[in-house]
Structure formats: C-alpha cells, structure tokens
Amino acid sequence: MVTFSDIADYRDFLKEFYDRRKVEMPFYSYRMMGDKLGLDSSYLYRVLQKKQHLPAHALPAAKEILALSGREAEYFDLLYSAAVSKDKTKREELMAKALSLRDVERHSLQAAELKLLENWWIPAVRAYLELNGGVVNVKQIAKDICPPITEEQALEAIETLKSVGLVKKLASGKLALTEAHLTVGGPEKAKAVRNFQRQVLSLASDALENVPVNERNISTLTLSVDQSCFEDLGDMLREFRRLVQKRVDGAKNPDRVMQLSMAFYPVARKGGASENTIIVGEGAGDKK
What we know:
Number of helices: 11
Domain DUF4423: 106-267
Structural class: mainly alpha
Pfam families: DUF4423 (PF14394)
Oligomer: single chain
Protein name: TIGR02147 family protein
InterPro entries: CHP02147, DUF4423
Helix content: 55-70%
C-alpha cells in the first residue's frame, strides 16, 4: 500500500487500490469497485482520472475498502475536504493539517527503513522471496539464507520489509516485491549504511573459507593512481553497477541470491607514486 509520503490527493489512494487489485485479480473491474462505492463504473473512472470527486456519501465505503482507520482515515478525510473546498484559505489550512499527519507517518517509516539496514539478512530475505515465488515459509527461508539465520530473524525481516513497503501481501497469502524507494536520509542513514556495509564486507571475508571457489568470485587489485585516474575509476565503478543491475533485471529464472561488494580505498599516500599494478585473484572468472 502507498504511504502518506506518497500521497497528496485522496484519489491516489483509490487509484493505487484499483491497480493493485487488478494485478491480483485480472478480472477486477471499475464496475466491481464502483458497486462497493455506490458509483457507476464511468463515474468511478473519472474519479480515478482526477476529473471528478467522490460524492460525500461514498466516503465511508471508500475508507472501508481501503482499510483506512485512525490517523490514515483522518488524513484521507482532510485530503478530500481540501480537494473539494472552493475557499483557498480553508484549503491551505486543511492541507497543512494533512501534512502534519504525514510528517508523523514519515518519521515512523524512516525508523523502519533504518531497521532495514541494521542487518544484512533483511535485504537478502527480500531477494530470496523473488526466488521462491513469495512463499512465506519461515523455516525454509531461515535455512536457505547463507549463512543460515534463525526463524525469528527471518520473520522479523519479513515484517520489516512489509512495514517499509518493499514487499506486499497478495490475496493468495504470498508476498510480492514492490518498486518502493527508501526515503530516509541524513546522518542516521549514513551511520546505518556504514554498519550495513561493514556486515557485508565481513560476509565477503567469511566466504573465503565457507563458500566453495566455484560458487564465488573474489579478486583484488592494488593500484597506484593519480587524482584524475581515481575519479575515472570511480565513474567506471558506477557504470559497472548500472550494467550489473541491467543484466540482473534480465535474469529469467534466478536460483540464488548473490552479494556483490565493491571496495575502493587508499592503503598508502605518497606523491609521485608509479602506476604499477599488482593483481591478486582466485575463484571462477578471476583475472590473473
């Protein structure tokens, strides 16, 4: 479901609901949704296209099918009142109240997002759900993560992913990945990201002993560079990340979750260093 930080028009709640139901149930129609709201299909279509507003009598039914309650329902009502108000000052006051509620929700969401970065296995569980078709088998998930995690950790990972909108529950009970983006920023995120990267690099070190050579690819380069070369290599690494993601997006039948860690950092600083290169590598596809 969309979150407060995604919504500035109450009709977006309805549009997201319709689109989601259409994915889950291809035969779902404007008529079926309109029947729930007491509207004919053509009028509902105009509402979702933001060419009409919901009639006031449809608001209780709308909040019911959207499963809105408490602060969410209040937020929906404020957005509706602001949208239909013809008084500019009143409309601005209503939107200000709505935004104050949204800020509370954003704070809650950011706390959940920070939790996402606390443990390396939470993103790994999300990727794993793509492999197994979204089947929520906590015992199997915990066993298949490398290295294995506890069932409690697997369950916590799933709940965290749901709370930040990175997975959603389908009518079948399975989970589907979403294209949600994280919004948290600032020093809190920087600290969480550093902690996450520290865990991931530790996993890479452990893989040297715990993962067979033919199932991993670990190599290192020790380089002497100048500032211009340093900047060019940074650009090359960013482009490589983009190409990796593009290739992964095209994978037809993924059967494993891999962690790619890239670290590029100084080990010495001295003016006039030569541009010699020492290459160390092992594993499938390593360059010697």
